[in-house]
């Protein structure tokens, strides 16, 4: 087995010595190099590629932010991790756009090992050189609506509550992902990972959202339609967002166990985020994919495989994994359109998202969810006990699509207390 190459960068030799000692048991699995500064680190990277770079923030000469920006530009496939002290939280805000994950000093060996192993393991599971390059170049996904400005205004209002902020964040897939990326990073020290947006917002708090979201400009302005190299109408971000919201709300209602509602909503919201990832590729060919599908009505994942050699599910899952989000969430995103590939285990959330996505897409397109070219997996839904529920959820999806918004939340769900300003506006 090829050993992974890991580069650690810190100007404090005591820190580097401590890392050598902490991680000595990994020497048979990792080839580790320890660099005393940014210039030296870049020189090492010119000699041979690294799978992961772990760097401090505050260093003389070239600081960690400058180093990571250069690594992103020159070596986009390298996973970029910040290992920094509590006092550097404001500095961390400046590198949210170029760091994949964050670790806090002093770091336990298990924490460092787990973050690096996860990143390397995902590289193995989702091995695709093109995909690694594409995801490596992404610092922010386009905000698919005006929700960023709603968030900025809400944070500025003294009377805004955590529930108000969470409701706005839940309304936008890209914003939800970035908030989950931050709160799931080891830097913020949660005892366990979460895929609940309300919990993530509550844990971060408004002060951290101000500093880490707004000051860092995580959610930049929406790019010009079409992406680099794609036709101007290749990917309708507004339509993608409406379908994501409809899928998320349906999935939250489909799951029977209240403990799964937040996970189902989040997974439904981001299940197609891989389309945005592939659309933003520097050598974008996603316009070809969508044009082919419009003409042939073949399954989207089949066309994606043929044209670009991977699927939007895999692309989205890879991004989530690199960002350090829960494995279960990445798994649902990876297999939402091919759930029969998952063997064993609890498939409650996957089944809900698969069904919700199928009926939502069909309702918006005005076709049958079982029509040729759709992804509905009858055998899987029968095993999950949801096949007989198809007519009900099809009706609800069609009603919501005609009304121009997602179905109302069930009483008692976390969405039922949303602030009016954060509700999905009518598309009519």
Jot down its keywords.
2 domains, Hypothetical protein af1432, Rossmann fold, single chain, alpha/beta, five-stranded parallel beta sheet, 428 residues, disordered C terminus
How many structurally independent domains? 2
Helix content: 40-55%
Supply the helix-strand structural class: alpha/beta
CATH topology of the largest domain: Hypothetical protein af1432
CATH class of the largest domain: Mainly Alpha
The number of E-state strands comes to: 5
The CATH homologous superfamily of the largest domain: Hypothetical protein af1432
Sheet-strand content, in percent, reads 5-15%
Query: From the alpha-carbon coordinates, what is the Rg to the nearest angstrom?
Result: 21 Å
The helix count comes to 20
Order of strands, widest sheet: 2-1-3-4-5
């Amino acid at each position: 087995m090829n050993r992974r190459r890991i580069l650690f960068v810190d100007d404090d030799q005591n820190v580097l010595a401590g890392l050598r000692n902490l991680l000595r048991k990994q020497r048979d699995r990792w080839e580790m190099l320890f660099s005393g500064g940014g210039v030296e680190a870049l020189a090492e990277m010119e000699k041979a590629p690294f799978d992961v770079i772990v760097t401090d923030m505050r260093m003389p000469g070239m600081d960690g932010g400058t180093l990571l920006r250069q690594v992103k530009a020159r070596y986009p496939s390298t996973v970029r991790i910040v290992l920094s002290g509590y006092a550097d939280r404001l500095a961390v805000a400046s590198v949210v756009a170029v760091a994949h994950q964050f670790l806090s000093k002093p770091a336990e060996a298990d924490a460092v090992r787990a973050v690096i192993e996860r990143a390397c393991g995902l590289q193995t599971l989702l091995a695709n050189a093109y995909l690694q390059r594409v995801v490596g170049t992404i610092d922010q996904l386009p905000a698919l609506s005006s929700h960023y400005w709603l968030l900025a205004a809400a944070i500025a209002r003294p009377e805004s509550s955590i529930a108000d902020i969470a409701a706005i964040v839940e309304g936008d897939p890209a914003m939800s992902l970035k908030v989950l990326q931050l709160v799931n990073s080891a830097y913020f020290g949660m005892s366990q990972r979460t895929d609940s947006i309300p919990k993530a917002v509550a844990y971060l708090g408004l002060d951290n959202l101000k500093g880490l979201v707004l000051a860092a400009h995580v959610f930049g302005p929406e790019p010009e339609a079409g992406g680099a190299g794609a036709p101007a109408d290749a990917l309708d971000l507004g339509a993608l967002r409406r379908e994501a919201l409809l899928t998320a709300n349906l999935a939250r209602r489909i799951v029977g166990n209240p403990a799964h509602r937040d996970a189902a909503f989040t997974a439904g919201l981001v299940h197609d985020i891989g389309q945005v990832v592939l659309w933003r590729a520097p050598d974008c060919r996603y316009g070809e994919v969508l044009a082919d599908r419009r003409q042939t009505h073949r399954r989207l994942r089949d066309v994606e495989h043929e044209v670009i050699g991977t699927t939007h599910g895999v692309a989205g899952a890879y991004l989530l994994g690199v960002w350090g989000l829960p494995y279960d969430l990445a798994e649902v995103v990876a297999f939402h359109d091919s759930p029969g590939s998952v063997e064993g285990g609890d498939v409650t959330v996957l089944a809900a998202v698969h069904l919700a996505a199928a009926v939502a897409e069909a309702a918006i397109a005005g076709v049958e969810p079982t029509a040729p070219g759709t992804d509905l997996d009858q055998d899987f839904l029968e095993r999950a006990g949801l096949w007989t529920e198809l007519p009900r959820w099809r009706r609800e999806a069609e009603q919501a699509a005609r009304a121009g918004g997602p179905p109302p939340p069930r009483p008692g769900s976390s969405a039922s207390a949303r602030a009016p300003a954060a509700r999905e506006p009518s598309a009519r």
